[in-house]
Specification:
24% helix; alpha/beta; single chain; Purple Acid Phosphatase, chain A, domain 2; Pantetheine_PDE
Length: 256
């Protein structure tokens, strides 16, 4: 059994949907796919993506990204209600948002958001970042409270799915540490760092004993080992980003 990873499919774009449809119906039938968020803000397209992938993989494991929780086109009350609808859609198509176990391997999804542990947003970011308009949270929920809501629902080291596992792979949509962003990023693009993730995820990764973590969101693909954990970002990205994103599945692990 092989484990593959991809994120940020953004199926709102026709070329991305076409790429998904051309994936082999035979090659991955015994394999697992980690789907690290940002599939579509539209529930019908999310369902279409789940259906397409479940026809190709033995198991699909998923966490929602920020785009998946936008409510601008779904008529839902708030983004927690959208989260419930996303989870229900995943369940309907057999997509897992809970830990996966195969022999000595455990794969653990980690929910998240951003709490400005990577910096404070400036006026430009607050006016430009679509989440501030397309997501809606109940009264009393700022981004730090949203982050706590999601991260408090993540499994811990006592979870029965982790018992006896010799290999733990975790995955999230959001970044667990800001030094995953390479030094080459221009200063003008670092304005988005506050909304990239939370250090709470890094703490949880370490507590779970993960040796590999898959993430998405930044659209800056990386494969790097820091402090004993290998971090992998394989964002598919927007069509206009085809010159620097991988536009492919990445094979990250094989169960002997």
């Amino acid at each position: 059994m092989r484990v593959f990873a991809v994120s940020d499919l953004h199926l709102d774009y026709a070329p991305n949907r076409e790429w998904l449809e051309q994936l082999s119906l035979r090659e991955y039938r015994g394999d697992v796919l980690i789907l690290a968020g940002d599939i579509s803000d539209k529930l019908p397209l999310l369902a279409e993506g789940f259906n397409t992938l479940m026809r190709r993989f033995a198991s699909v494991l998923y966490v929602p990204g920020n785009h998946d929780l936008w409510i601008s086109t779904d008529g839902l009350r708030d983004s927690f209600e959208k989260f419930a609808a996303v989870r229900e859609t995943a369940t309907q198509y057999g997509v897992r948002m809970t830990p996966f176990r195969h022999d000595d391997l455990a794969i653990v999804p980690l929910l998240g958001w951003y709490d400005y542990s990577f910096g404070e947003p400036d006026g430009f970011l607050k006016s430009a970042w679509v989440d501030y308009r397309a997501c809606r949270w109940p009264d009393g929920y700022d981004d730090a409270a949203v982050t706590r809501f999601f991260t408090e629902r993540n499994p811990d080291a006592s979870s029965p799915e982790l018992e006896g596992a010799s290999k733990v792979i975790t995955f999230s949509h959001f970044l667990p540490r800001i030094d995953l962003m390479p030094d080459r990023i221009p200063s003008r693009h670092r304005k988005i760092y506050p909304v990239l993730g939370t250090t709470i995820l890094e703490t949880q990764i370490r507590q779970l004993g993960s040796s590999m973590h898959v993430y998405g969101h930044s659209h800056v693909n990386r494969h790097i080992t820091l402090d004993g954990v290998t971090y992998i970002n394989n964002a598919f990205g927007y069509p206009a980003e085809a010159h620097f994103t991988g536009r492919r599945l990445v094979h990250i692990h094989t169960v002997p």
